[in-house]
Amino acid sequence: MSASSTEQGSRIRGTRIRFELGCLDFANNECPARFILQESAFVSAFFNFLGIYSEASASLFISNGHRVQLRRSNDNNLKPITLMNSLIRLFPIACIAGAVSLTGNTALASYIEITYENLSEEGGLWNTPLFLGFHDGSYDLFDLNDPLSPTSAGLEALAENGDTSGLLSDIAGIDGAKSSVLAGPGGLFNPGSENSLTIKLDAVDNRYLTFASMLLPSNDAFIGNHNPTAYALFNGAGVFNDGFVINIFGSSVWDSGTEVNDTFGAPFSMIGGMSTDIPGGYSVNHPGLDNFIGTGLGNGSTLERAFDSDTAIGRITARRVPDSTAGTGLISISLLLILQHFARRHKKANA
Ligand SMILES: [Ca+2]
Ligand SMILES: [Ca+2]
Fold first, then answer.
1. What's the pLDDT tens digit per position in 278-337?
2. Is residue 138 classed as helix, strand or coil in its secondary structure?
3. Dist. CA 174 → ligand 2 center (Å)
4. Could you tell me which of 277, 305, 252 has the C-alpha nearest to residue 161?
5. Which ligand is nearest to the CA of 253?
6. Entry pTM
7. Which CATH class is domain 110-320?
8. Which ligand is nearest to the CA of 283?
9. Which residues of 265-289 are buried (b: 16+ CB within 10 A; e: fewer)?
């Protein structure tokens, strides 16, 4: 391949499509035009439309006979694969499908819908809005039963008051990590309620999920994972783990160890009083919230049941969804026009 090339770029609704012309290699009877579809919501949407969950780049080669071929970028040793001879109109789909099939393990972005359900029975425990952190495995929310690992200020604020701001700030310091807060239908998650959100995630930077939510009423009871790599949304090859689910039972309700469990000063409780802090406390299995049963809640109702170790507390599920915010037709039309332009130009040059 010669080194000469021209490069043009186009940005369509946030998608950067870069294509390079030139590098003519007449010895091999090829007129390469390399397309690089860079990571974007728009491309993701098109892949979703095709039922393909991947992003990649590929090289297009139009030979003198107008054979359209795709070749993995940055690998000129690969034998080009002829996808079609003259069906240029089908190129947009072939290009993307070929790019995906040829590139294999690529860093990918996906739209993931996260749902939280409060599984408490009526009269049971409530949840504060769920903190959601998506990271590469390096965000460790807390350690369990470790006196040498006191509960962080961010987690203390969540466990005692449902305040997610500290955790959001903590995870913001991790490269590539994302976070969100999933509130209940009315702000809090009442027993039996659920809510969802959709977030765009990178399969590597956001491979793992960490969550946290306070249980109400309590002094400092919460749910959350202390093993940062316990819940992988994607596998090592960047493929979303279908059927992702986290079932949370009473055995996984924690006490942040930062406040005495005397019911005083507990949010959402009508008991009132002043809470008592425990400086330097660390997280442990929660001993139970039976001391709140029969007491009033902030909404005027009464807590009728708390939890045992096998009580269903909540469930988190995740599933892939198409990007509904981006169209799929424009990119197809655009690639078709680009291809036809190249084909005509090449035909003229060889006439
Ligand atoms: Ca830990
Ligand atoms: Ca406590």
1. 999 999 999 999 999 999 999 999 999 999 999 999 999 999 998 754 444 445 445 556
2. coil
3. 29
4. 277
5. 2
6. 0.67
7. mainly beta
8. 2
9. bbbbbeeeeebeebeebbbeebebb
